[in-house]
Write a structure and sequence with these properties.
The chain is an alpha/beta fold. It has 8 helices and 21 strands. The protein has 3 domains: about 110 residues, Elongation Factor Tu (Ef-tu), domain 3 (Beta Barrel); about 130 residues, Nucleotide-binding domain of ferredoxin-NADP reductase (FNR) module (Rossmann fold, 3-Layer(aba) Sandwich); about 90 residues, Beta-grasp domain (Ubiquitin-like (UB roll), Roll), CATH 3.10.20. The strands form 5 sheets. A 6-stranded antiparallel beta sheet has the order 6-5-8-2-3-7, covered by helices on one side. A 6-stranded parallel beta sheet has the order 12-11-10-9-13-14, with helices on both faces. A 5-stranded mixed beta sheet has the order 16-15-21-17-19. The structure holds FE2/S2 (inorganic) cluster.
């Protein structure tokens, strides 16, 4: 075929990094869940792998806050992206977003990143399992497969507290009604008085799964939900002898508390540890600010910066979100990340400060 009939696409696309975006629409999904849609001021295509997430850079009560949310829209509609957030009682960030974020406001986001995605684990048959607002990444996957007419057999199983809590209910029903490779199963823990419900009730169990997807042991499984939900799903699958290499879960939502605990432990250990001889320490120099410090073995670049009072933005603290990406201009680090950085960024010399431990004297452009 001649190339004469093709025009190059000239619209810019984003890549993993910091982007200014504008909230353009707020959609009420359920009584306590809202979707926030974002676009750039210039036409920009937001490509990402369905299942990936972004980290919002916010200022709440005068303090900087970073918080990660999976993208709920699909890259098949690339001129905008959206996140879907549930109001959580006592949840400072989710409540702030519900109360304050409106169409017209601009904010910075970091990303997109994430290993939990449908592109890196291609399969002909998938089982999408979600609990509550954990539906967002698997909805992105389902929308992507649906919009692109992908030859993928989907079973979508969503568990909600009650019928009024089912996020994207009508859209899910519509997808299931229109194509035959999308099978939808909804499970409600309970239903209120006068609330009709003829679907599954209680908690997802093996008998239900067997009815919904008799071939579930042969499917690629993507699971996202509250920690107890994912633990129960995992246990169920393991008991049935499922090959867990084909099980993927979105886990970062549950990690901050653990990370905080770990950081505290490390701090306590450090306080008790004997001083490290100078010969074993490495110097970390921050070029733009002209500051430097010696760090002990095991200390991260982010930790070194913090000791100097330098604030490298950080969210997950474990190499997932990519927020702490900085350019390394010299020296060697050992980086144990969890997918928060692309191969291109690595080739360009970037590192994730939160999970990079100097192996020599190191210089950082910060
Ligand atoms: S803070 Fe998330 S990758 Fe470093």
């Amino acid at each position: 075929m001649s190339n004469d009939f093709f025009n190059p696409v000239t619209t810019q696309t984003w890549s993993n990094g910091r982007h200014l975006v504008r909230c353009v629409k707020v959609i009420e999904e359920t009584w306590d869940v809202r979707t926030f849609c974002f676009m750039a001021d210039q036409p920009l295509m937001f490509f990402f792998k369905p299942g990936q997430f972004v980290t919002l850079e916010l200022e709440i009560n005068g303090a900087p806050v970073m918080r990660s949310y999976t993208i709920s829209s699909s890259p098949s509609l690339p001129y905008s992206f959206s996140i879907t957030i549930k109001r959580v009682s006592g949840g400072v960030v989710s409540n702030w977003l519900h109360d304050n974020l409106q169409a017209g406001q601009e904010l910075a986001v970091h990303g997109p990143v994430g290993l939990f995605n449908a592109i890196d684990f291609p399969a002909e048959k998938v089982l999408l399992l979600s609990g509550g607002v954990g539906i967002t990444p698997v909805m992105s996957m389902a929308r992507w497969f649906y919009d692109t007419n992908a030859n993928v057999d989907m079973v979508f199983v969503h568990s909600a507290r009650s019928p009024k809590d089912i996020i994207y209910h009508r859209e899910l029903e519509q997808m299931a009604a229109r194509v035959d490779n999308f099978s939808l199963h909804l499970v409600c823990e309970k239903h209120g008085l006068g609330e009709p419900w003829s679907g599954y009730r209680g908690y997802l169990n093996q008998a239900m799964l067997q009815l919904m997807a008799p071939d579930y042991l042969q499917r690629e499984i993507f699971c996202c939900g509250p920690t107890p939900y994912m633990a129960a799903v995992k246990r169920l699958l393991q008991e049935q002898g499922f090959d867990m290499a084909h099980y993927h879960e979105e886990a970062f939502g549950a990690t901050p508390a653990e990370v905080r605990a770990e950081v505290k432990e490390l701090a306590a250990e450090a306080a008790e540890a004997p001083p490290v001889p100078m010969a074993e320490q490495h110097q970390v120099s921050f070029i733009s600010t002209g500051k430097s410090i010696h760090v002990s073995p095991g200390e991260t670049v982010h930790g070194a910066a913090a000791k100097l009072g330098l604030h490298i933005p950080k969210a997950c603290g474990m190499g997932i979100c990519g927020t702490c990406k900085v350019l390394k201009t010299g020296g060697e680090v050992q980086m144990e990340h969890n997918g928060g950085i692309t191969d291109e960024d690595l080739a360009d010399g970037y590192i994730l400060a939160c999970c990079s431990v100097p192996q020599s004297d190191v210089s950082i452009d910060f």
